[in-house]
Amino acid sequence: MDNRPGCLSGILKLALLNWVFDWLQERFGFGKGLSCTGCGCGIILSILFVILACSIITGTNWFELGF
């Protein structure tokens, strides 16, 4: 039995991830860090975003219309 989430769940997860990423970038992202360039936290957040987005994209069955 295949228990992967459907496309609606995947779209909602990506939208939530995008909202959280934007909020974190505004508070801790590029230009907000303690270093002279402020890119430390921005790079870490970007790497985490890419990892979580790939996890959502590859774990979702885009042909199933359900949660």
What would you say this structure looks like, in words?
This protein is an all-alpha fold. The chain has a domain at 29-61. The chain is built from two helices and no strands. The chain has helices at residues 7-28, 40-58. Helix 1 runs antiparallel to helix 2 (40-58). The relative contact order is 0.26.
Written as H for each helix and E for each strand, in order along the chain, the element string is HH
Spatial shape = elongated
Radius of gyration: 15 Å
Identify low-pLDDT runs: none
What is the count of β-strands? 0
Helix and strand composition category: mainly alpha
Taking the alpha carbons of the first and last residues, their distance comes to 16 Å
How would you sum up the major sheet?
Answer: none
Tell me the strand percentage band.
under 5%
Mean pLDDT rating: 80
Write the layout of secondary structure elements.
Elements (H helix, E strand, L loop, with lengths): L6 H22 L11 H19 L9
Helix pairs in contact: 1-2
In short:
The chain has 67 residues and is mainly α. The chain has 2 helices and no strands. Helix content is 61%, strand content 0%.
Task: Give structural attributes.
single chain; 67 residues; 2 helices
